[in-house]
From TrEMBL:
<keyword id="KW-0234">DNA repair</keyword>
<protein>
    <recommendedName>
        <fullName>DNA replication and repair protein RecF</fullName>
    </recommendedName>
</protein>
<dbReference type="GO" id="GO:0006260">
    <property type="term" value="P:DNA replication"/>
</dbReference>
<comment type="function">
    <text>The RecF protein is involved in DNA metabolism; it is required for DNA replication and normal SOS inducibility. RecF binds preferentially to single-stranded, linear DNA. It also seems to bind ATP.</text>
</comment>
<keyword id="KW-0235">DNA replication</keyword>
<dbReference type="InterPro" id="IPR001238">
    <property type="entry name" value="DNA-binding_RecF"/>
</dbReference>
<dbReference type="Pfam" id="PF02463">
    <property type="entry name" value="SMC_N"/>
</dbReference>
<dbReference type="GO" id="GO:0009432">
    <property type="term" value="P:SOS response"/>
</dbReference>
<keyword id="KW-0742">SOS response</keyword>
<comment type="similarity">
    <text>Belongs to the RecF family.</text>
</comment>
<keyword id="KW-0547">Nucleotide-binding</keyword>
<dbReference type="GO" id="GO:0003697">
    <property type="term" value="F:single-stranded DNA binding"/>
</dbReference>
<dbReference type="InterPro" id="IPR018078">
    <property type="entry name" value="DNA-binding_RecF_CS"/>
</dbReference>
<dbReference type="InterPro" id="IPR003395">
    <property type="entry name" value="RecF/RecN/SMC_N"/>
</dbReference>
<keyword id="KW-0227">DNA damage</keyword>
<feature type="domain" description="RecF/RecN/SMC N-terminal">
    <location>
        <begin position="3"/>
        <end position="352"/>
    </location>
</feature>
<keyword id="KW-0963">Cytoplasm</keyword>
Length: 360
């Protein structure tokens, strides 16, 4: 899978930009705050209809505009698929093959991307909510039904939490039972999706981490599911506590992940180098996992991370992805990059202007 063209209109600092990409490697070089990351962000947005940097959609629209457009042409399995997202203050319109999609779940999956950025260290050492978002975004790319099940779960969870705040003397226990049944129905589906994803991710990332650490470390990923055995029974048992606290205390909305290196929790006790390598192993594992699920390798976005890696990790990373995935690298300089392939494109980014400097 590759993205051959990208068109931006009023996206961040790009008023009107059109780019043609190399199918192998594309490097964007420029000083900070010139717009390199905005290009990577736009590709991520085109794939997932969300930014990896902000939850506020208004930040994506140029300050003097009311709407923006991100469009691109995707080539996968000898099929060309034009994609387009129009975003304004009222919401977004998404199109695939020039046809408007009514549900985002029907759109997501046309373009699969893996993003690795400095903030991805938060997957290892950040809050549980960061890890849940990571799980949700990655499963959603390869199993659109997951997004539907997750949406229904959160909708029911919101209704249940709102009902728990009602006047306790007027609560209808039967209605609460109905909400619990719905929460369990969709929650168990979410848990099943997550468990399968983590099992597969662990198998691949364990092998990759063994290579990246030269066999010195064994990586394990543990799905710390909040539901221990029986969701329905645990939810019922927690009802009085939930009524007192006015929120739902049991369910996959409280799930987490644990990352172990040689049986030691790397999130709390690992060095920064170990945390960085663990994050890299997980991200690289996603590439093969998406290939297993879809039969196509995703697009890889490496946003300002190469300078964070030592020479050996850079070489290991490039050897594992170049020639396998279409890769985009943003960097302030080419000086620290080694063993680059002959076939690639280099773009210079300065003040929102992009000039192609080299293409082989």
């Amino acid at each position: 899978m590759i993205i051959s063209e990208l068109h931006l209109k009023n996206f961040r600092n790009y008023t009107d930009l059109s780019l043609n990409f190399h199918p192998n490697l594309n490097i964007f070089v420029g000083q900070n705050a010139q717009g390199k990351t905005n290009v990577a962000e736009s590709i991520y947005f085109l794939a997932l209809t969300r930014s990896h940097r902000t939850h506020a959609d208004r930040e994506l629209i140029a300050w003097d505009s009311k709407e923006m457009t991100v469009a691109g042409t995707i080539i996968k399995k000898n099929t060309t698929v034009p994609l387009e997202i129009l975003l304004n203050t009222k919401g977004r319109i998404v199109k695939a093959n020039h046809l408007k999609e009514k549900r985002l779940a029907d759109y997501i999956g046309n373009l699969n991307v893996i993003m690795f950025a400095p903030e991805d260290l938060a997957i290892i050492k950040g809050a549980p909510s960061v890890r849940r978002r990571f799980i949700d975004m990655e499963i959603g790319q390869i199993r659109p039904v997951y997004l539907y099940d997750l949406m229904r779960y959160h909708k029911t969870l919101k209704e249940r939490n709102a009902y728990l705040k009602f006047d306790k003397t007027k609560l209808d226990a039967n209605f609460l039972d109905v909400l619990d049944e719905q929460l369990v129905e969709y929650g168990e589906k979410v848990i099943s999706h997550r468990q399968g994803f983590i099992d597969n991710l662990t198998k691949i990332s364990t092998d990759l981490h063994d290579k990246l650490s030269q066999g010195k470390e064994k990586l394990d990923i543990i799905y710390a599911c909040n539901v221990k055995q029986d969701f329905a029974a645990e939810l019922k048992s927690a009802r009085q506590k939930d009524l007192f606290r006015m929120q739902t205390s049991v369910g996959p909305h409280r799930d987490d992940l644990q990352f172990l290196l040689n049986n030691i929790d790397v999130s709390n006790f690992g060095s920064q180098g170990q945390q960085r390598t663990t994050a890299l192993s997980v991200k690289l594992a996603e590439i093969d996992l998406i290939f297993q699920e879809t039969g196509d390798y995703p697009v890889l976005l490496l946003d300002d991370v190469m300078s964070e890696l030592d020479n050996q990790r850079q070489l290991d990373l490039l050897s594992l992805v170049i020639g396998k995935t279409q890769t985009f690298i943003t960097t302030t300089t080419l000086d620290h990059l080694q063993n680059l392939p002959d076939k690639m494109a280099v773009f210079e980014v300065k003040s929102g202007e992009i000039l192609e400097k080299n293409r082989d």
